[in-house]
Design brief:
InterPro entries: Matrin/U1-C_Znf_C2H2, Matrin/U1-like-C_Znf_C2H2, U1-CZ_Znf_C2H2, Znf_C2H2_sf, Znf_CCCH, Znf_CCCH_sf. With 187 residues, this protein is mainly alpha-helical. 56% of the residues lie in helices and 4% in strands. Strands 1-2 form a two-stranded antiparallel ribbon.
């Protein structure tokens, strides 16, 4: 099998030679896929603005078909499509505004010296944090956290006087425990 060319836009591969590559890259399907790819990344607001500036494509809107396809200079969006797009844009804006509002709100909170309010807020945040923690899956524990939980293992008093103990009877050091490989058991 010779070299294959993989087209990301079309999600397909074909024999890589100048002719088939050129045929593919100049093809209608490829152009459509490429355009669809970038359209998906384009901001809804920008699409809405562009489409609103175009005249409606009568052919497409009356029959659902247009020989120019995605390259048509007229808009293929129905009034409904545009309304939906406008709704998405509005939602995004409202979200952005709400975020902005939250940010300035917490700024005000910092200046607020009512202890009761702060307490209520603290309690609410704690509840939120706990709810959040409960839904979180824990990853590996950091060495720092680990070291806080490792006790100082002491030599068993009855062994102190015994010379040349086997290493299995020596207490582990903190460093050994922190740097040990911890594995999950028994799956
Ligand atoms: Zn392609
Ligand atoms: Zn059209």
């Amino acid at each position: 099998m010779g070299k294959r060319y993989y087209c990301d836009y079309c999600n397909k591969s074909f024999a890589d030679n100048p002719v088939s590559r050129k045929t593919h890259l100049n093809g209608v399907v490829h152009a459509q896929n490429k355009r669809a790819h970038y359209d998906a990344l384009r901001d809804e607001e920008e699409i809405l603005r562009d489409e609103s500036n175009k005249k409606p494509c009568r052919a497409f809107l009356s029959s659902g078909q247009c020989k120019f396809g995605d390259r048509c200079q007229y808009s293929h969006l129905t009034t409904e499509d545009k309304a939906h797009l406008a709704e998405v844009v509005n939602q995004k804006k409202r979200l952005a505004e709400a975020r902005l509002h939250d940010a300035s709100q917490s700024q005000e909170d910092n200046n607020d010296d009512s202890i009761l309010q702060s307490l209520n807020k603290w309690e609410k945040r704690r509840a939120e944090k706990r709810a959040c923690e409960e839904s979180v899956e824990y990853g590996p524990v950091s060495k720092q956290t680990l070291s806080a939980f490792i006790p100082d293992y002491q030599f068993a008093p009855c062994l102190v006087s015994v010379p040349n103990l086997p290493s299995s009877l020596l207490p582990p050091t903190k460093e050994e425990l922190i740097n040990a490989e911890y594995a999950e058991w028994g799956w």
